[in-house]
Amino acid sequence: MLKSKTGIDYMKGWWITFVSAFLLIHQVKAQVEPLLLYEAKQEPACKAWVDKTMDGMSLKEKVGQLFIYTIAPQNTKRNLSLLQDVVRTHKVGGLLFSGGQLRDQALLTNYAQDNAEVPLLITFDGEWGLAMRLKGTPNFSRNMTLGCIQDNQLIYEYGKEVARECKELGVHVNFAPVADVNINPNNPVINTRSFGEDPYLVAEKVVAYAKGLESGGVLSVSKHFPGHGDTDVDSHKALPVLPFTRARLDSVELYPFKQVIKAGLGGIMVGHLQVPSLDNSSLPASLSKNVITGLLIDELKFKGLVFTDALAMKGVSSTENVCVQALNAGNDLLLAPRNIKTEIEGVMKAIEKGVLSEEMINEKCRKVLTYKYALGAYRKKKINLSGLEERISTPQTSGLIEKLHAASVTVLGNRKRILPFHYSADTLTVISIGVPKSDEVFVQELAKYGPVINFRLTKETNDSVRRSIIHRIADSRRVVVSVTTRTIKGFSPFLATLSLNAPTVYAIFTPFTTLDQLPSLSSAASVVLGHSVEPDVQKHVAGVLYGVSSASGRLSASIPKQFKAGEGITITPATPQYYAPEELSMSSGVLNRIDSIVQDGISAGAFPGCQVYVLKNGKIVYDKSFGSFTYDKNAHKVQSDDLYDLASLSKTTGTLLAVMKLYDKGKFNLTDKISTYLPYLKGTDKENITINELLFHQSGLPSTIFFYKEAIDKDSYAGAFLKSKKDNLHTIQVGKNLYASSSYNFKEGLVSSKPSDVYDINVADDFWLNRSFRQEEERMLAEAPLKDKVYRYSCVNFILLKEMVERISGEAMDKLLYREYFRPMKLERLTYLPLRKFSKEQIAPTVKNDFLRRKSPVLQGYVHDEAAAFFGGVSGNAGLFGSASEVAAVYQMLLNGGTYNGRRYLSEATCHLFTTATSNISRRGLGFDKPDMKDVEKNPCAESAPASVFGHTGFTGTCAWADPDNDMVYVFLSNRVYPNAWNNKLGRMNIRPKIQQVLYDALGH
Prior knowledge:
The chain is of the alpha/beta class. Helix 2 (35-41) crosses helix 15 (358-374) and helix 8 packs parallel to helix 9.
């Protein structure tokens, strides 16, 4: 089942009013009464006006109030006579004007209201605003285009603007929005009138638009109940059948209408549709008591106005006494019957015969009059013809239309990150398909970013010219195909022959529903849907191609065999520009080998998913995400902005940056003793350890300290806590040949399930340590056994360096890093304690059933390393989470000698010292790991990596390497420890160095 990713949060003051009203209603009623109706009923003046009007009306006049007559807005003598007859003689309740001119409709509205004893309800069929019926009015996009928009606040503003225009024209009711879910691409009548094919997203857009209308004082009428989206018959011409089960109707067709009712909106139109699962007679829904009274009113609790669809439509027009049947079924208002006189007389006869009751007519008439009061129709207000066009078409209206245009632009595919283009001296080839000058603005706008050569194809372009174009663009580096015609089919053979080495981007300035005529889209590098040929759209799409403008749309309906609903890629000015590897002297063909290496690893169970990111000369040449967070079938697919636990990669991506910053400021010397800054080491055998020795991993300290053991009550378990073999007391596997006690407790008073001033060290979900444990950690650091000062990789070294950073700087290390690096570098996804900023769904999990954090079935968002966890998630050895692109930014800054995007973060001298210095007894650098040029078996890098390379790896399956010789950064992030930390297939398969070797092979081509 489809799920929506966007919420409906845009009601501001109007919605607050609605919530208050809803709460009052809900105290006495189970259903939601429409807000407009509820508010009107609270005014004594409303009841007084309705009562007075009802008292002065005959039964026939009350019947007349239930009819809406359709008339053309033509200011002719014949039309005025017809209008006068309908209003004075038949005394209809409302009018619906068909298509015509704005001023004519205004004149006829004034004339009709002057002739009406009871003010008329003026209705309008404006699904995409007044332009649907009236020429020269603001032209908004069709719903299927607006369905691509992700910001429902814009849809609400659009509805409110349409309401404003309607009120200027004296319109009280808009027969909109279409609430049909168009999951049938062959639907001949709904199609682009629908917001899309996802019932959840359609519901959001419908409610947003309808609330905008009603907040502007115009009644919304959602249509066509119970749902016209999956039909291949036009109800204007025949009666469509919905052969679906009730369960299917509930989950698709009915879903948007249910949300409309829950939202307290005021109008629903019933379609001419035959639905056997709701009514097994041959009656259409618009005449079915089962559908309207039984389902819509009784079951779904709709209390608003129920309108029929136009009764002159062939789906029902041949039905005898159609208006009588419609009223009996539960409709309140009868729209556009063929013969108004005959139908009113038919209703009167039905009352005389007892088919319809006078009580029913009174009830419906009272309801209609109450809505007239609620909508302000009870006051006759002349439309001011002077300046009408200017009041309707305002600069603000044009601005909103442009906002809607921009927000609907949708980028599809974007294979190999071709977009956004980077500025280049290379000529951009543009092939324009459509009438001359139709995309002139687009081509001119592209020329602002670099040289452009433009070729145009029209229907008249002969084969010789087409072959010439293909020959002339053969050596193009980048090609854009601009489409401005809806009749694309004739150009499809030409486009299919475009076998170019250069990536091709399609810019589509037509509705995307025409794109099934273009099978060549499936091979395009990217497709940008502009939906419209308007100049502002052309300018915006050109900006999107170069990352100057943003595109955030998502496809509202599928393009058969090419793209699925919901697809779309966000492009913003912050989106990094991708370069073709060949532009940076690398082979894209060779780089593609990375894909198979990664897929082999996933297939072998070395890791469930990963991110691979490569920069060359500071430019992106490879950026791909593979696999999923877990091995589960429906697991979250890895995205480029997902976060991974960096493990020991935190040492050089976090802690070492802080150390370098303080060194840069002259706060310490490398030969200083660590005890100078950590007094608890004075008087111990660690007193003389230097900072230099900690960075080179030759301090003599052990590789780790098991801080957690000091938190466990030794009397709570029998025997040893860890054993190499599984037995009845040791059932929790923690290593390949290591098992932990399955029954133990933490020391009394040390652990709490809730945070407090005392318990402020967060280890995991519902796991908080007493702050006193920090003193225990210092004691354990001071008492750790010291061995000889040979190379021994140690997490303890970096734990001490973090402690030193905080003592010198006087602030927490994570805060220092945010302030000095991450925030100014705009690295929003490089962070300690990621759950403070991100949901678990955005963070790759590490282990399942961790032996220490027993309340967490999966460790996700908390650091995997036990030592770092017992330091509260911010430690010198681990704790940092991030995405590959943001990790790469740190190493690019170091490659740049301390600068990034024009800002300096470290001096060039400090960067040079820390990235080049090497121990005289090991391969290690000052904090960084480096290639082992002497022992291939111990080399963490590719065989071709030069000695200048610096970086680090991480236990969870991560690495980052920077190569100064080739100005290249390589980052690999995975969660190879899921579900078990002892899975070392990643290492055994040598995947990280293999990928790095591909980079050097690509440089050699």
